[in-house]
Amino acid sequence: MKPPKQRLTQKSENALESTSEHAHELSGRRDFVLPEELLRADRQQTMVPSSLAEKLNQAVGGLPAPKPAPWWKRFLS
Amino acid sequence: MEAEPSSDSPSGAASLPGVFGELYEAHHQQVYYLALRLLGDPTLAEDAAQEVFIKAWKGLDRFRGGSELRTWLYRITLNHCSTLRQSWHARKMHVTDDGEIDESTVGVSESPLRQLEVSELGERIQRTLDDLPEEYRVLLLLVADEELSYDQVAQLTNQSSDAVRGKLHRARKAFVQRFGKNA
């Protein structure tokens, strides 16, 4: 089992055009063929500070509420 | 894409009002991550994400759904981070004694909180992205969102889909080469 760097380096030349999922998981480590797969996994592991929502709540609390927009219900439903 | 913030939502979205909480719940991870990897600093990324969502809150009534919501938030994020980076660039360019411009420290914060990013892999990814031209960095980060089509990435980066495909090929190669060097 090679670390992600080596796998990424070795496979990238042949697989740069591939859009299929080639990553596999073994012993808790993943191999990535495309950089965006690596970034996607990195994003999933990145913790968003809980203080962000608290700060936002304080910030928007002092702002006027946006007008109702009907498309939101369609978009979010 | 239904978001149902609950009282025990780990994101904290439940504390936000109504539809804004749903907006935050559905998109905060992507917005924060994009800002983090563009700015390279968790504290700055948090500030940037806050600004992005405040702008989104203020613009909710003006947004008519002409573009998809994720794309709209990404555009705000890209513009905000680009403005910040340009500001750093302007501030951190120094003219050396022999008249040359020194840009060696441009765009990288040395905040102690940067060390809070505990993942060694994450830091390596950050170093690799920092080494890339901004155009490549943005392309890879946008394509990493599987919900974005090439057409949407093209819209966000003001170019054609064919151009995106061509540059993405080069961006992948550049990333792989630098990722190996940053071991």
Query: Greatest interface and its residue counts?
Result: A-B, 41 and 57 residues
Extended strand count of chain B: 2
- Compressed to H and E, one letter per element, the order of chain B equals HHHEEHHHH
For the sheet with most strands of chain A, the description reads: 2 strands, antiparallel
Tell me the strand percentage band of chain A: 5-15%
Low-confidence stretches of chain B: 1-7, 104-118
Enumerate the strands of the largest sheet of chain A in spatial order, edge to edge or round the barrel.
1-2
**Radius of gyration of chain A from the CA trace?**
20 Å
Beginning-to-end CA distance, first to last residue of chain B: 37 Å
Indicate the structural class of chain A. Answer: mainly alpha
Tell me the number of helical segments of chain A per DSSP (H or I, 4 or more residues long). 4
Order of helices and strands of chain A: HEEHHH
